[in-house]
Amino acid sequence: MATILVVDDKEFRRQEIKDLLQKNGYEVITIPRAHDATWAFMDNHFCIDLVLTDTNMPEVSGIELAECIREEISKTIPIIGMSKREENRQFYEHFWLKSEPPEILIGLIKKLTAQK
User: What is residue 19's predicted lDDT score, i.e. its pLDDT?
Assistant: First the structure.
C-alpha cells in the first residue's frame, strides 16, 4: 500500500488523519512543520507516494511546501492541499476541504495513488 506524508501543525489533526489513513491500509509519516517536511521528503522521497499538507501553518505554509517540492524535488508526486477555507483550493491541483466527509479524502488518495 502507498506511503503518505502528512504535514499539519496541529497534533490532533495529524493523529486524526493518521488514524484514518492507517485504517484504510496506508503507511503514514507525520510531520508538524512544512520546513521539516521538506527534509523528510528529500530523505524518503523514494518511498513517499503522496503528500497531504495543511495550507495554513506557521513559518512555511503548505502552499510554499508544495511549490518547493514541485521546483526542487519532484514534479510528479501527487500533493493534496487541505484547509478549512474553500478559497485555498485555487493553490492546489488536488484539494480536500476539512469539512468534507473523510470518504472524499480517501477516494481522492485512492485515485491518485492508483495512477502511480
Answer: 98
